[in-house]
């Protein structure tokens, strides 16, 4: 080392030595910066940066050597061979480039060290090739131990420089690596120069192609300019890259901070590398406090403030292990405050992981609400049909030997009347009130459901093997539901009909149990409503018979099995026939003649009354058009027909097709028609009457609002129900009602017709009370259309009158 110091002080120009060091440091800095660019690039981009790096590093080493050689004064004139000088530059670029390429390979953790050693070899190859390029009138002798030391020093410092550059790409790492690479080049050069001794030999011939020190200075200056140009390019590239990175960082930070999810990046040891604003809010800590902190510390802090449930250490170790094994994971963290956080961990290459945090508390609540809505009725919040079926299945699965399950199907009596007269909003409030009363009547273990409309159902699990619990519940329900309701200033009274089936006696299948309870409900309603009935096997037989009857009724029209009979209506005073009432009969191919009492209710329930009613209208008008004089035909209209928007068109079409005058058609309606949506019904009646069609009130006196209907619509006739006529001789109340109705008819100028007149005594009383017309077996039984002409021409009936 002392010998090298002597070489520097005695044989070199210090000004050029300092210049060589400055050029070397500049070139080393450029080389390290370009190395970092190549390290960050991939594919062709990396190859381009490596070529630039090899050129910068090789030229820097070469320029440093020859500037230092210009500073060296051997005491005898020296020139430089052009070919070997050029070869030395190529050695520096190629071997250094190979070393840098090797340092960037990922085949071993020692790749940067091996690459640095190769770079050191490139420095040595360039130096000794450059020394061979010296054209001196003498011989060069070497001290080989010092040569080996110089090569070792250059390789060692070059390896340290490249290793530092590979590990750290910040400004500190870049500066350290540049200084180490500079020291590698300078230390090798001056240590190798110490090993040189010159022996003058004037007889040694000079090379014809050699450069003088002045010419070499120009070449070195050109290389120095090249290095400075590369330095400028590197600086501009670095500035551009930093601008791009800065913009990308701004965009990335904006994207991260506007995410609805919390995001946090951890290293392999579980320390936080970065996090976004959303995560800091979820963690309850600032970004400054979180960065560099271990996840374990964060979990312990959150446990301390009551925002984490579980073992922090176990959770931390599991997540670190998953990341090291390359396993993605997803967990839901529950907090003491009732929040739920979904955490998804994605492992990163080289260790560590990225975690996303999403507060799914509201999402869970929304899912719970959706699930609740899917299984519950929106109006009453009771279980709907789907959930009821599921709970019935569960109850049947859990049933034991000493238990039974009762299924109660409930239908509100007169609810439709309330809905139609007081409106649907009030009807909805009534359903809510009924639902509350039902829930109050059952135990917690029972299930109350709304199946739809005004239909409800209950599942009751009982320890009794017979039916006392179900009976007690049914009695309680009839009493509670039948009690008056006060809703929006209205007092409402309804009832409930209940059908009950029992498992395992009636069935163990949920669908069959519901079906059986529904049949029992139908029986309860047909027995007068406001009652309960248990399922019996005979009900199933009746239901099957009813279904068969419905199937036959659907085909009755197409098979021409329906027929019209006519019963005359006569004037009390003159005995003349004023009208015929059309009465439908069904000639069943197997059961014979079926009364309307049996199939008309079925037709109304199934909606078949609309096509049947249209047929009756068309057929009656057609028949009446062949009658002589102005004899009218009376046709009954069902309340169901008034729900059909085409009713008016159907009536007018029947008249038009038959060529019958509208004044000869008399439509009979009952109070039931007016009970359902009375405003719309009255509007329809007014339109029919405007065409000249007569409208009669049938079964007058059986309802509770008859007088109000007479005031709201000018009926053409009032028909007194036959129940009052049949009780004339035995019930004074019936006599009083008939007297009141006939008196009302006289005062309003409306004719009155008494139905069901069968005896002369009845006829006499009705005549004395001022009844206008009579109808019944006293005059004639209903007859087919073939017998109508004979009745109209026979004077016998007039004599009876």
Q: How does this model look, in words?
A:
The chain is an alpha+beta fold and 801 residues long. The chain has 4 domains: 2-238, no CATH class; 262-364, 2-Layer Sandwich (Beta-Lactamase), CATH 3.30.450; 376-535, Alpha-Beta Plaits; 549-800, TIM Barrel (Alpha-Beta Barrel), CATH 3.20.20. The strands form 6 sheets. Strands 18-19-21-22-23-24-25-26 form an 8-stranded mixed β-barrel. Helix 1 packs across helix 7 (171-194), helix 2 runs antiparallel to helix 3 and helix 15 runs antiparallel to helix 16 (424-441). It is rod-shaped, with a radius of gyration of 55 Å. Mean pLDDT is 81; it is low at 1-6 and 795-801.
Would you summarize the structure shown here?
With 801 residues, the chain is of the alpha+beta class.
Question: At CATH's second level, what is the architecture of the largest domain?
Answer: Alpha-Beta Barrel
Kindly provide the radius of gyration, computed on alpha-carbon positions and rounded to a whole number of angstroms: 55 Å
What's the overall average pLDDT, rounded?
81
Provide the number of structural domains: 4
Q: In the CATH hierarchy, what is the class of the largest domain?
A: Alpha Beta
Largest sheet: 8 strands, mixed, barrel
Please name the defining characteristics of this protein.
alpha+beta; Beta-Lactamase; rod-shaped; 801 residues; single chain; 8-stranded mixed beta barrel; disordered C terminus; Alpha-Beta Plaits
Secondary structure topology:
Blueprint: H1 2-11, H2 14-40, H3 44-71, E1 79-81, H4 82-103, H5 111-132, E2 134-135, E3 138-142, H6 144-167, H7 171-194, E4 196-200, E5 210-211, H8 213-257, E6 262-266, E7 272-275, H9 277-283, H10 287-290, H11 295-304, H12 312-324, E8 329-334, E9 340-347, E10 353-359, H13 361-375, H14 385-398, E11 404-413, H15 415-422, H16 424-441, E12 447-452, E13 455-462, H17 468-482, E14 485-487, E15 490-492, E16 495-503, H18 510-526, E17 532-534, H19 537-556, E18 562-571, E19 577-588, E20 592-594, H20 596-606, H21 609-624, E21 632-636, H22 647-658, E22 665-669, H23 671-675, H24 678-690, E23 694-700, H25 706-712, E24 717-720, H26 722-726, H27 732-748, E25 752-754, H28 760-768, E26 773-774, E27 783-784, H29 788-793, H30 796-800
Parallel strand pairs: 16-17, 19-21, 21-22, 22-23, 23-24, 24-25, 25-26
Antiparallel strand pairs: 1-2, 1-5, 3-4, 6-7, 6-10, 8-9, 9-10, 11-13, 11-16, 12-13, 14-15, 18-19, 18-26, 18-27, 19-20
């Amino acid at each position: 080392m002392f010998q090298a110091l002597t070489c520097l002080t005695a044989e070199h120009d210090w000004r050029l030595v300092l210049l060589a060091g400055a050029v070397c440091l500049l070139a080393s800095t450029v080389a390290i910066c370009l190395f970092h660019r190549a390290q960050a690039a991939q594919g062709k981009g990396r190859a381009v940066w490596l070529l630039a790096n090899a050129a910068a590093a090789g030229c820097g080493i070469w320029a440093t050597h020859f500037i230092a050689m210009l500073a060296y004064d051997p005491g005898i004139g020296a020139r430089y061979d052009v070919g070997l000088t050029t070869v030395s530059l190529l050695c520096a670029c190629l071997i250094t480039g190979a070393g840098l390429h090797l340092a960037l390979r990922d085949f071993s953790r020692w790749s940067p060290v091996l690459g640095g050693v190769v770079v050191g070899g490139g420095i040595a190859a360039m130096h000794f090739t450059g020394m061979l390029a010296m054209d001196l009138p003498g011989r060069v002798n070497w001290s080989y131990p010092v040569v080996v030391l110089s090569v070792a020093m250059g390789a060692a410092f070059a390896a340290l420089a490249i290793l530092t550059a590979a590990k750290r790409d910040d400004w500190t790492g870049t500066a350290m690596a540049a200084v180490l690479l500079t020291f590698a080049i300078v230390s090798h050069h001056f240590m190798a120069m110490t090993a040189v001794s010159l022996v003058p030999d004037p007889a040694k011939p000079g090379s014809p192609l050699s450069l003088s020190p002045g010419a070499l200075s120009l070449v070195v200056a050109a290389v120095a300019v090249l290095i400075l140009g590369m330095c400028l390019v590197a600086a501009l590239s670095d500035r551009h890259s930093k601008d791009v990175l800065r913009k990308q960082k701004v965009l990335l930070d904006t994207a991260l901070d506007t995410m609805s999810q919390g995001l946090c990046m951890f290293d392999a040891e579980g320390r936080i590398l970065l996090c976004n604003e959303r995560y800091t809010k979820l963690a309850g800590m600032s970004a400054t406090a979180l960065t560099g902190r271990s996840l374990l510390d964060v979990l312990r802090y959150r446990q301390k403030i009551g925002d984490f449930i579980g073992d922090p250490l176990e959770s931390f170790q599991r997540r670190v292990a998953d990341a090291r094994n390359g396993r993605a994971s997803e967990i839901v963290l529950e907090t003491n405050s009732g929040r739920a956080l979904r955490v998804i961990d994605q492992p990163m290459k080289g260790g560590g992981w990225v975690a996303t945090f999403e507060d799914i508390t509201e999402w869970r609540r929304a899912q719970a609400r959706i699930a609740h809505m899917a299984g519950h009725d929106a109006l009453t919040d009771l279980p709907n049909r789907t959930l009821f079926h599921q709970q019935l299945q569960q109850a049947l699965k859990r049933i034991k030997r000493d238990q039974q399950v009762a299924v109660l199907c409930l239908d509100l009596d007169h609810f439709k009347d309330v809905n139609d007269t007081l409106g649907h909003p009030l009807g909805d409030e009534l359903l809510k009130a009924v639902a509350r009363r039902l829930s109050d009547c059952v135990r917690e273990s029972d299930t109350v459901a709304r199946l739809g409309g005004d239909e409800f159902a209950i599942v009751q699990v009982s320890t009794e093997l017979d039916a006392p619990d179900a009976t007690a519940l049914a009695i309680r329900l009839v009493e509670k539901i039948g009690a008056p309701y006060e809703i929006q200033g209205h007092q409402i009274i309804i009832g409930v009909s209940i059908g009950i089936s029992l498992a395992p006696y009636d069935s163990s299948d949920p669908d069959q149990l519901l079906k059986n309870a529904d049949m029992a409900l139908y029986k309860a309603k047909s027995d007068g409503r406001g009652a309960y009935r248990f399922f019996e096997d005979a009900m199933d037989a009746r239901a099957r018979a009813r279904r068969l009857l419905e199937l036959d009724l659907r085909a009755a029209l197409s098979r021409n099995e329906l027929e019209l009979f006519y019963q005359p209506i006569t004037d009390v005073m003159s005995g003349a026939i004023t009208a015929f009432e059309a009465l439908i009969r069904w000639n069943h191919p197997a059961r014979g003649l079926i009364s309307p009492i049996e199939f008309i209710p079925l037709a109304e329930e199934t909606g078949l009354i609309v096509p049947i009613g249209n047929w009756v209208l068309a057929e009656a008008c057609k028949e009446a058009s062949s009658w002589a004089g102005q004899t009218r035909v009376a046709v009954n209209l069902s309340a169901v027909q008034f729900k059909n928007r085409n009713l008016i068109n159907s009536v007018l079409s029947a008249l038009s097709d038959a060529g019958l005058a509208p004044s000869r058609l008399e439509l009979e309606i009952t109070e039931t028609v007016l009970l359902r949506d009375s405003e719309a019904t009255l509007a329809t009646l007014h339109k029919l009457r405007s065409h000249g069609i007569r409208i009669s009130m049938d079964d007058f006196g059986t309802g509770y609002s008859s007088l109000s209907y007479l005031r709201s619509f000018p009926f053409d006739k009032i028909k007194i129900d036959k129940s009052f006529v049949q009780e004339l001789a035995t019930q004074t109340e019936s006599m009083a009602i008939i007297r009141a109705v006939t008196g009302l008819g006289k005062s309003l100028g409306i004719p009155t017709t008494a139905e069901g007149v069968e005896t002369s005594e009845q006829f006499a009383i009705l005549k004395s009370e001022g009844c206008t017309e009579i109808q019944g077996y006293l005059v004639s039984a209903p007859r087919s259309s073939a017998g109508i002409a004979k009745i109209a021409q026979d004077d016998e009936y007039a004599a009876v009158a």
